[in-house]
Design goal:
3-isopropylmalate dehydratase activity, leucine biosynthesis, lyase, EC 4.2.1.33, Aconitase, domain 4
């Protein structure tokens, strides 16, 4: 995945609480096996009516929120089933950060592993940000500084684990993260193992 440093742009306001992963990515699309193109199905049943026409007035059907880099949400966003496709669909839509008072636990972890920054802030701060988002004020999420800046307001700091912050900044997956932290230890272990169990490391033969 690509690394994340900062993102700036409009934020889609979704004040409703308990927007679950079935709303974000309806279950009938789980048969799709590729990550590519999943963004078109994000919030499908909110964005489109039964005949496929856009639902007028829905936030993701209005400018400038059709592909928002940031979502500001009500509490418990991403609750429900553990489907990782919900995060893939958000990423495909263009979302790189979600701000909320609380997120579904598995959804929160899936964000961290798929290039979306989960920003957890107190409810009163999120309420203010929801109003600003609805008014079209630009948001900047700065992962390096661990801040959210709304318009000309003072930056608001958020917490994130150092390990996950490092992985997001560098665009590392789980394997990359392990190698970044333990590459020397792994190499030392393999060197010792080669000496005492050389049969595990057969020499490559050439044809």
């Amino acid at each position: 995945m690509s690394g994340f440093t900062t993102v700036t742009g409009p934020a889609a306001a979704m004040p409703e609480e308990n927007i679950d992963t079935d709303i974000i990515f309806p279950a009938r699309f789980l048969l799709l096996t590729s990550r590519e193109g999943l963004g078109q199905h994000a919030f499908h049943d909110r964005r489109y009516d039964a005949d496929g026409s856009e639902v007028a007035g829905y936030v993701l059907n209005t400018e400038p929120f059709r592909a928002p880099p940031v979502i500001v949400a009500g509490a418990n966003f991403g609750s429900g089933s553990s489907r990782e496709q919900a995060v893939w669909a958000l990423h495909g839509l263009g979302v790189r950060a979600v701000i909320a008072p609380a997120l579904g636990e598995i959804f929160h972890n899936n964000c961290l592993r798929n290039g979306i920054v989960p920003v957890i802030l107190p409810p009163e701060q999120v309420a203010e940000m929801l109003a600003s988002a609805a008014a079209g004020v630009a948001f900047t999420v700065d992962l390096e500084a661990q801040t959210v800046t709304v318009g000309n307001a003072a930056p608001v700091r958020f917490d994130i684990s150092p390990e996950r912050r490092l992985a997001l900044l560098n665009g590392w997956d789980e394997t990359d993260l392990v190698l970044a932290r333990f590459a020397d230890d792994i190499a030392a272990f393999e060197a010792g193992q080669r000496k005492i169990q050389p049969w595990l490391y057969p020499e490559e033969t050439t044809a």
